[in-house]
Protein backbone atom coordinates (compact mmCIF):
# COMPACT_ATOMS: atom_id res chain seq x y z
CA UNK A 1 0.00 0.00 0.00
CA UNK A 2 1.31 3.46 -0.78
CA UNK A 3 1.26 6.46 1.52
CA UNK A 4 -0.89 8.54 -0.83
CA UNK A 5 -4.10 7.82 1.09
CA UNK A 6 -4.49 6.45 4.58
CA UNK A 7 -7.92 5.63 5.91
CA UNK A 8 -8.39 6.96 9.43
CA UNK A 9 -10.88 6.52 12.23
CA UNK A 10 -12.12 10.03 11.38
CA UNK A 11 -12.92 8.91 7.82
CA UNK A 12 -15.03 6.06 9.17
CA UNK A 13 -16.73 8.40 11.65
CA UNK A 14 -17.57 10.87 8.85
CA UNK A 15 -19.18 8.19 6.70
CA UNK A 16 -21.15 6.78 9.62
CA UNK A 17 -22.29 10.30 10.51
CA UNK A 18 -23.39 10.93 6.91
CA UNK A 19 -25.47 7.74 6.99
CA UNK A 20 -27.02 8.55 10.39
CA UNK A 21 -25.62 5.32 11.83
CA UNK A 22 -25.23 4.91 15.59
CA UNK A 23 -22.44 2.38 15.09
CA UNK A 24 -19.20 3.02 16.98
CA UNK A 25 -16.56 4.08 14.41
CA UNK A 26 -13.81 2.32 16.38
CA UNK A 27 -15.72 -0.98 16.14
CA UNK A 28 -15.91 -0.59 12.36
CA UNK A 29 -12.33 0.60 11.96
CA UNK A 30 -11.04 -2.39 13.92
CA UNK A 31 -12.70 -4.93 11.60
CA UNK A 32 -11.35 -3.45 8.37
CA UNK A 33 -8.76 -5.77 6.89
CA UNK A 34 -5.93 -5.07 4.46
CA UNK A 35 -8.14 -5.84 1.46
CA UNK A 36 -10.73 -3.31 2.63
CA UNK A 37 -8.07 -0.65 3.17
CA UNK A 38 -6.57 -1.40 -0.24
CA UNK A 39 -9.97 -1.01 -1.93
CA UNK A 40 -10.48 2.34 -0.19
CA UNK A 41 -7.01 3.56 -1.17
CA UNK A 42 -7.43 2.48 -4.78
CA UNK A 43 -10.76 4.31 -4.95
CA UNK A 44 -9.28 7.45 -3.43
CA UNK A 45 -6.47 7.49 -5.95
CA UNK A 46 -9.02 7.78 -8.77
CA UNK A 47 -9.36 11.43 -7.76
CA UNK A 48 -7.12 14.21 -9.04
CA UNK A 49 -7.26 16.38 -5.93
CA UNK A 50 -7.92 15.92 -2.22
CA UNK A 51 -11.65 16.67 -2.50
CA UNK A 52 -12.13 14.06 -5.22
CA UNK A 53 -9.97 11.56 -3.38
CA UNK A 54 -12.03 12.02 -0.23
CA UNK A 55 -15.26 11.64 -2.20
CA UNK A 56 -14.14 8.40 -3.85
CA UNK A 57 -12.72 7.00 -0.62
CA UNK A 58 -15.93 7.74 1.28
CA UNK A 59 -18.01 6.12 -1.45
CA UNK A 60 -15.92 2.95 -1.11
CA UNK A 61 -16.11 3.08 2.69
CA UNK A 62 -19.90 3.32 2.35
CA UNK A 63 -19.94 0.28 0.03
CA UNK A 64 -17.75 -1.76 2.38
CA UNK A 65 -19.90 -0.84 5.38
CA UNK A 66 -22.98 -1.94 3.45
CA UNK A 67 -21.28 -5.23 2.51
CA UNK A 68 -20.39 -5.85 6.17
CA UNK A 69 -23.88 -4.98 7.36
CA UNK A 70 -23.07 -1.85 9.34
CA UNK A 71 -25.31 0.37 7.21
CA UNK A 72 -28.14 -0.22 4.76
What does the model show?
The protein is mainly alpha-helical. The protein has one domain (16-67). The chain has helices at 9-18, 25-31, 34-44, 50-67. The longest helix has 18 residues, at 50-67. It is globular and about 30 Å long. The termini are far apart. The model has no long low-confidence stretch (mean pLDDT 92).
Keyword list:
mainly alpha, 72 residues, 0% strand, 4 helices
Q: Short summary of the structure?
A:
The protein has 72 residues and is an all-alpha fold. It has one domain (16-67). The protein has helices spanning 9-18, 25-31, 34-44, 50-67.
SSE topology sketch:
Layout: H1 9-18, H2 25-31, H3 34-44, H4 50-67
What sequence of helices (H) and strands (E) makes up the elements? HHHH
Tell me the number of structural domains. 1
What percent strand? under 5%
User: Which value, in Å, is the CA radius of gyration?
Assistant: 11 Å
Low-confidence stretches: none
Structural class: mainly alpha
Please tally the β strands and state the result: 0
Q: How many strands, what sense, and barrel or not for the largest sheet?
A: none
Number of helices: 4
What's the N-to-C terminus distance? 29 Å
Task: Categorize the overall geometry.
Answer: globular
The percent of residues in helical segments reads 55-70%
Mean pLDDT: 92
Amino acid sequence: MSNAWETTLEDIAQVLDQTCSNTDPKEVFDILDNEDLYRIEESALEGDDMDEQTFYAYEMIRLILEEKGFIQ
